[in-house]
């Protein structure tokens, strides 16, 4: 009896430690999210100030609003000033850069939920027209399409959209990696995913009255700038109890609202798997 009580006391202590760690992580995440929002506001304010300064400078110099109508030297100076202002604006948003002899080199740092992941580099030429010289962006990111739409008209928008694509991609990949790392004992077989990680297919086990029923999951991320799925299908075999069918519906809702590994942790801690 004493041994059993000691075991229960140890389990209670471990549960309390885990709960405390979870609360600390949630508090840290809340602080990071608040800091991100604060930095975004600062970025917007800086961008508004830079836009106003550029407008005043152009009016002061008697230049037209269209830089293409200026002489080549004036166009080059206008581009350099714009790039310098842009570097200042994006410094607080995970996008850094420096001027080069031929243009500017940007570094886009990606993160997911406070965890810094990969950095991607983009070297732009600006002497004649703005174009991409070299880069480390993965081939499955639609860089050419984004460049065609924004690069010549709005470099800030181009970098912002590209950053959204990259951060969403690394976020989806991070979730899949976390699932395989921490819940491999519950995953049946191999988690299937494509290069962009916008389609995930895997099986996981559910137990009911000493019987195990495999669930099949298909997650489709229709929005390339989002790290949560737009379409979720969770299915089980026809001979599964009706209670598991209801559970599959609940899990489907969790997969839509929460990161993949957090959804698993949620119903795993509840003893459903």
What are its keywords?
single chain, 273 residues, alpha+beta, four-stranded antiparallel β-sheet, 6 helices, 8 strands, 52% helix, nucleus
Would you mind describing this structure in some detail?
- The structure is a single chain.
- By secondary structure, the protein is of the alpha+beta class.
- Among the domains are: 90-170; 183-270.
- Helices cover 52% and strands 23% of the residues.
- It has helices at residues 2-61, 72-90, 143-150, 155-182, 242-257, 260-269; strands spanning 95-99, 103-112, 115-125, 131-135, 187-193, 199-208, 211-220, 231-236.
- Strands 1-2-3-4 form a four-stranded antiparallel sheet. Strands 5-6-7-8 form a four-stranded antiparallel sheet, with helices on one face.
- It is elongated, with a radius of gyration of 25 Å.
- The two termini are 30 Å apart.
- The model has no long low-confidence stretch (mean pLDDT 80).
- This is Centromere protein O.
- Residues 10-61 form a coiled coil.
